[in-house]
Design brief:
The complex is a heterodimer of chains A (about 450) and B (about 400).
Chain A lengths: L8 E17 L2 E18 L4 E6 L5 H11 L19 E4 L12 H14 L5 E19 L4 E19 L2 E11 L9 H17 L1 E2 L3 E7 L1 H13 L11 H6 L13 E4 L19 E6 L2 E2 L6 H7 L7 E2 L8 E2 L3 E4 L6 H5 L4 E13 L2 E13 L2 E7 L3 E4 H5 L2 E4 L4 E3 L6 E3 L2 E4 L2 E4 L2 E8 L1
Parallel strand pairs in A: 4-6, 8-18, 9-16, 15-24
Antiparallel strand pairs in A: 1-2, 1-5, 2-3, 5-6, 6-7, 9-25, 10-11, 10-15, 11-12, 13-14, 16-17, 17-18, 17-19, 19-25, 20-25, 21-24, 22-23
Chain B lengths: L1 E17 L2 E19 L2 E8 L4 H10 L15 E6 L7 H18 L3 E18 L3 E18 L8 E7 L4 H16 L9 E6 L2 H7 L4 H4 L21 E4 L22 E6 L2 E2 L6 H6 L8 E2 L7 E2 L4 E3 L6 H4 L3 E8 L3 E2 L4 E13 L2 E6 L2 E6 H4 L4 E5 L11 E9 L3
Parallel strand pairs in B: 4-6, 8-15
Antiparallel strand pairs in B: 1-2, 1-5, 2-3, 5-6, 6-7, 8-21, 9-10, 9-14, 10-11, 12-13, 15-17, 16-17, 17-18, 17-19, 19-21, 20-21
Helix pairs in contact in B: 2-3
């Protein structure tokens, strides 16, 4: 297939991407775009440095490889390099979406879906609406100088209905969205649409300000997912430990890092927006416990970080597309279910908050969650809607403050946005968990 | 009928830096082509990557007129303008050695820290032409430094950042800037006692106002500034513009995605506190019968939409000393943040320093700041300047009043 030169490790990743984007604004068609791109990303490693390039001409891949070889310096012992020796040599064809491919759904059906749904979304306080249909089918190929030969596919499709509400001096924008791997699963029922508008209109009319402070909070599954991703998922990406021996010692597997009822898992095997059967270095997906019963149990790796920390590959070397090199990223990250019902979680709270939905989150030493809709909890019952700008907390302190885990785990996919890490945004990821209760979070 | 052709070429050399060492070189060269046709109030768009087949693109775009996407057909006078704003930064063979030398020096001068992330040399060539005879060509480049700074042994992914864009490379100036931050980071200070403080930061509070300046939201009564177009709404000192002046911006074409070139390359959203215009493309400007700001953006195969490239706050002072008297807090990194439906903003602060008389005295514990969007752009707005803390590259500091909450 390709002439890989001796003395180097090399690989070629090809993505044949089909994507649709349709957008309505106030019912009027504003975008109707079908994209077909085939690109390749080429890597050469000489044991000291990596050399990368990308091309949109897949007939020029050999030329791209040869150009990179001209920058690098051959190493006859490259096969025994600790990074190179870790690379798996998988040979596999894993095509799972061909019989339900979004490429085969006529454009008119996609347009009709959002046009009809958009027409049903009406509210007396809503002045502005947008509706989007988005899909993507990617066929990946991966070849390496060690002999890897993999072909697999990925698919996502979804709808996102945005509505802007105004009441008095207040304004808010909220989105109802759904991401699936099959077009036929994207419809909302009339009841779901009605409930969404009713909840938003109730919120903007009745939501009251909160007094900044520390309160017990209960997070809905989507918020739990964002919390797990932002608070601990990013810290589990091992590239931040490279070159820092003190850090590696501090993060010893087996260290207690959270409440004993907390378990966080990470895996690319689940069908959804975090489905990654092979990562962008050709490593097969694994199932990694990041935290098991409050104890640090694993972390996420590329071959470089696995070699540096002398650990196993996890299938987490990912790039957002064929313009970028793979770096350590999450796939689907979630909190495992516990045994409490929602009512049991809120029952002991005298005064706290229920975070129903979230706009975005971020996480460093402090994590931040920006709720879109939240409610007061008073004497163990969900009360009035409240206006909260952000929830924050120290990551490690907060992981230890989780004192209730629900029995209602959900794994969620997303059609808009995605995960950002340095220059690479957005990356499709999944996340989720059950309702969880945290005894104390900063509410502002 | 009107047609437009756009070509965007980018060349990128990107070094990945891991713990003070250049780990990789990435070479990207790409070309994107766009053909648009406007006819009978509709638009058709097609795009491609690499070498363009304009005949095929035109045929495909013409077929897409049948999709029925409304778009106004505007016409202009003939005009041709070419601006080459490129400046020599490195010979290609010197790039890796120069960056590794810089990293060696940063590591030696700041032994308690590790430096990672990206250093890039980018260049671009953007052209726009239409059937009315407008022809624009822009060439630009940039040196982009984005360092994640980590205190050795810290449990954080990163503890500080130093980044900027420039059209030159000055190792001494970069080293002085980074040392300033690293030294201040190592000096731990207690919380300040004041409840309200002067903040020196980036444009974070402004980002929450931007979406409320989009014409589509404004004219559908979904903006916090509803009904206020033409009114004095903000501080006299606040002027907010789309600035595509090649003499002031780095690697940014002087025209927007629809070939709009503003007088002097600048057009104001807010001038001296008055809300003068809104963020528009040609479609939204026509739809709401309002002036076009010239802030359109578009993907290579997509319909033009509203963008905000070149968004800039006009400087109010030559340096920070003119704006800040006494003590202030320099916020280097906020950990997200957001705004309530009433315009109340809250931002957790990850890294902040006490600033006094032009110096960073030391690092403050974590806290959060809160302010209201109307206050922070009015009485709370103290000014904007490009000069103050750092010597190298392009920086801009927004100075405003905010309350401190949630002291750790």
């Amino acid at each position: 297939m390709y002439k890989f030169q001796k003395g180097f490790y090399s690989d070629v990743r090809i993505e044949d991407r089909f994507a649709t984007q349709i957008r309505l604004q106030n019912g009027q068609l504003h975008e109707a775009k079908v994209t077909a791109e085939k690109k390749a990303f080429v890597r050469v490693f000489d044991g000291k440095m990596w050399y990368y390039t990308s091309t949109d001409d897949v007939n020029a891949i050999q030329q791209a490889l040869d150009e990179l070889y001209s920058y690098a310096h051959a190493d006859e012992n490259i096969e025994s390099n600790p990074i190179v020796s870790r690379y798996q040599v998988n040979e596999d064809v894993k095509i799972v979406f061909a019989d339900r491919c979004v490429k085969d759904v006529p454009f008119e059906q996609k347009l009709k879906l959002i046009t009809e749904t958009d027409g049903k979304l009406t509210g007396s306080l809503c002045n502005y609406k947008s509706a989007q249909y988005l899909d993507r089918y990617s066929l990946y190929e991966f070849y390496s100088s060690k002999g890897a030969d993999i072909k697999y596919d990925f698919q996502t499709c979804g709808v996102a209905y945005g509505m802007a509400f105004a009441y008095g001096e207040d304004t808010m924008q909220e989105q109802l969205s759904k991401a699936r791997t099959e077009f036929s699963l994207l419809k909302y029922t009339d009841e779901e649409l009605h409930d969404f508008v009713a909840r938003c209109e109730d919120y903007i009319q009745r939501a009251k300000p909160v007094e900044a402070g520390s309160y017990p909070v209960v997070l809905a599954p989507i918020v739990t997912g964002v919390f797990a991703h932002e608070s601990f998922g990013h810290k589990s990406e091992s590239d931040f430990m490279l070159g820092d021996e003190a850090m590696a010692k501090e993060w010893t597997i087996g260290k207690r890092v959270g409440s004993p009822i907390l378990t966080i898992r990470e895996s690319g095997v689940f069908e959804g927006s975090g489905y990654v059967p092979y990562d962008d270095e050709g490593t097969a997906a694994t199932d990694t416990y990041l935290i098991k019963n409050g104890v640090l149990s694993g972390r996420l790796h590329s071959a470089t970080t696995a070699a540096a920390l002398n650990e196993q590959l996890t299938g987490n070397a990912r790039a957002i597309n064929c313009d970028y090199e793979p770096i350590v990223r999450m796939t689907t990250t979630f909190v495992e279910a516990g045994d409490s019902t929602f009512d049991e979680l809120i029952a002991p709270i005298k005064h706290g908050y229920y975070i129903y939905d979230v706009k975005h989150g971020s996480g460093m030493s402090t994590f931040t969650i920006a709720p879109s809709i939240a409610y007061e909890i008073v004497d163990g019952k969900v009360g009035d809607p409240v206006k909260i700008a952000v929830l924050t907390g120290n990551v490690f302190e907060t992981l230890g403050l989780i004192d209730g885990v629900g029995n209602d785990r959900e794994l969620l996919s997303f059609v808009t946005g995605g995960c950002g890490k340095m220059e690479q945004y957005p990356l499709n990821v999944g996340m989720g968990g059950p309702h969880i209760r945290v005894s104390k979070m900063n509410v502002q | 009928m009107k047609t437009e052709k756009l070509i965007s070429k980018e060349s990128n050399r990107c070094l990945n830096v891991v713990a003070n060492h250049v780990e990789s070189l990435r070479i990207n060269n790409s070309t994107q082509n766009t053909f648009r046709i406007y006819d009978q109030g509709m638009i058709g768009v097609e795009g491609s990557l690499g070498e363009a087949n304009w005949t095929e693109l035109e045929q495909s775009a013409t077929a897409k007129l049948a999709q029925g996407i409304d778009y106004p057909e505007t016409h202009t006078d003939k005009r041709t303008l070419t601006i080459d704003a490129t400046k020599h930064v490195f010979d290609e063979q010197d790039f890796i050695p120069a960056v590794q030398h810089l990293l060696d020096r940063l590591g030696a001068e700041n032994p308690q820290f590790l430096f990672s992330n990206k250093v890039q040399l980018n260049s671009s060539e953007d052209s726009y032409e239409n059937s009315d005879g407008e022809r624009y060509l822009y060439r630009g480049n940039q040196f982009l430094l984005s360092l994640a700074i980590k205190l050795k042994g810290s449990p954080n992914i990163m503890d500080e950042g130093y980044g900027c864009e420039s059209l030159d490379f000055d190792e001494d100036a970069i080293c002085r800037d980074v040392k300033l931050v690293c030294d201040a980071f190592l000096t731990k200070l207690p919380h300040v006692q004041e409840e309200e403080v002067t903040v020196i930061g980036g444009f974070e509070p402004l980002q929450y106002a931007i979406q409320h300046l989009i014409a589509d939201l404004y004219f559908n009564h979904a903006s916090l500034f509803d009904g206020k177009l033409g009114q004095k709404l903000f501080s006299d000192k606040l002027s907010l513009a789309i600035n595509r002046n090649p003499a002031e911006q780095i690697n940014l074409p002087f025209f927007d995605a629809e070939g709009v070139v503003n007088d002097g390359y600048v057009n104001y959203l807010v001038k001296n506190g008055v809300l003068e215009r809104l963020l528009t493309c040609k479609k939204s400007a026509a739809q709401y019968n309002t002036a076009n700001l010239g802030s359109a953006a578009a993907s290579y195969n997509g319909v033009p939409n509203v963008g905000a490239s070149g968004l800039d706050i006009v400087n109010t002072a030559k340096d920070l000393a003119e704006i800040v008297t006494g003590r202030a807090i320099y916020i280097s990194d906020t950990g997200g943040g957001d705004m309530t439906p009433s315009g109340d903003i809250s931002m957790p602060v990850m890294t902040a320093y006490l600033y006094e008389d032009g110096k960073l005295l030391g690092k403050l514990p974590e806290f959060a700041v809160s302010c209201n969007i109307f206050e922070v752009l009015n009485n709370g707005f103290l000014g904007v300047t490009e000069k103050g803390l750092f010597e190298f590259g392009k920086h801009k500091y927004l100075v405003y009043k905010a309350k401190i909450v949630n002291k750790a």
